């Protein structure tokens, strides 16, 4: 007798897919039909599996994805925890804007965490950074400065079935934060369901672990992003405050360049919109027009 079940792929290892189901964790292989269709299940996929009386399990269907982002890829990401360092590497609003624009394009919500702020304690530089981040809070982003506070809060922020993942440049402190969150969340290494066999998880390149009522992805992805696939005339929509202001522009589809009656340019002059945000918008337009990332990001 063959039973069917649904679950979430939480890890890949040596050709096997670990799928979290209601009855436990099941280690499966994918059917050959995926190769024929040139499809490949990835971590985060919602899938159907079949289990026979002998405990043999196969992944047979990938359910519709919300998104598939990153290298290595994670599917169905609903929220990103964006780690931006205060120092080593230095804080950069330009890099912050790139990440926020990219994930806005992907329709993924973002929470910002400023790492390594303790290295700048009581310095004017930290005050400047916090003032900059205050603008991002004003336009709707949640910002955290303390890893302990974030570690305690995250399990409450993750809704049922949501997949959160970390992002940020290399060296920003993603691994340090992840270890703090794991410790605070009392992460347990789950056992393979009795449907197949028992055994501890092994380290894999990408995995999800249970946190709150959802999952947090442990992945080395999202350290570099390419904005060139974004359509030039839609870029403005991925700057949240531009998108909100555009309803008051004189012309529908205003690109906020030299059009008369532009609300974004008006708010820019009134210093309600950060000049750095607008400058980054123009730089991204150039990047998309030329179809190539800046050399320093490659």
TrEMBL record:
Subcellular location: Cytoplasm
Membrane-spanning residues: none
Free-text remark on how the cofactor is bound: Binds 1 zinc ion per subunit.
Gene3D superfamilies xrefs: Nucleic acid-binding proteins, P-loop containing nucleotide triphosphate hydrolases, Probable gtpase engc, domain 3
Residues holding GTP: 115-118, 168-176
Alphabetized UniProt keyword annotations: Cytoplasm, GTP-binding, Hydrolase, Metal-binding, Nucleotide-binding, Ribosome biogenesis, RNA-binding, rRNA-binding, Zinc
One of the GO biological process terms: ribosomal small subunit biogenesis
Protein name: Small ribosomal subunit biogenesis GTPase RsgA
């Amino acid at each position: 007798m063959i039973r069917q079940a649904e679950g979430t792929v939480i890890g890949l290892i040596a050709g096997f897919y670990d799928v979290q189901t209601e009855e436990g964790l099941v280690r499966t292989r994918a059917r050959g039909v995926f190769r024929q269709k040139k499809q490949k299940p990835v971590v985060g996929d919602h899938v159907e599996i079949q289990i026979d009386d002998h405990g043999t399990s196969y992944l047979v269907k990938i359910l519709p994805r919300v998104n598939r982002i990153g290298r290595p890829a994670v599917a169905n990401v609903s929220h990103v925890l964006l780690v931006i360092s205060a120092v080593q590497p230095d804080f950069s609003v330009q890099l912050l804007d790139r990440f926020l624009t990219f994930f806005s394009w992907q329709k993924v919500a973002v929470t910002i965490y400023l790492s390594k702020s303790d290295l700048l304690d009581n310095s004017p530089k930290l005050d400047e950074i916090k003032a900059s981040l205050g603008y991002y809070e004003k336009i709707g982003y949640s910002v955290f400065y303390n890893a302990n506070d974030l570690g305690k809060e995250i399990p409450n922020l993750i809704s049922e079935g949501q997949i959160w993942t970390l992002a940020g440049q290399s060296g920003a402190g993603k691994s340090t934060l992840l270890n703090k969150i794991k410790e605070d969340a009392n992460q347990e290494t789950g056992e393979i369901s009795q449907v197949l066999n028992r055994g501890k998880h092994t380290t894999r390149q990408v995995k999800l672990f249970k946190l709150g009522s959802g999952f947090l992805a442990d992945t080395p992805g999202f350290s570099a992003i390419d904005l060139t696939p974004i359509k030039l005339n839609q870029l403005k929509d991925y700057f949240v405050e531009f998108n909100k202001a555009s309803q008051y522009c004189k012309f529908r589809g205003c690109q906020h360049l030299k059009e008369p009656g532009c609300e974004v340019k008006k708010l820019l002059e009134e210093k309600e919109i950060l000049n750095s945000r607008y400058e980054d918008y123009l730089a991204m337009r150039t990047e998309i027009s030329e179809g190539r990332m800046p050399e320093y990001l490659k």
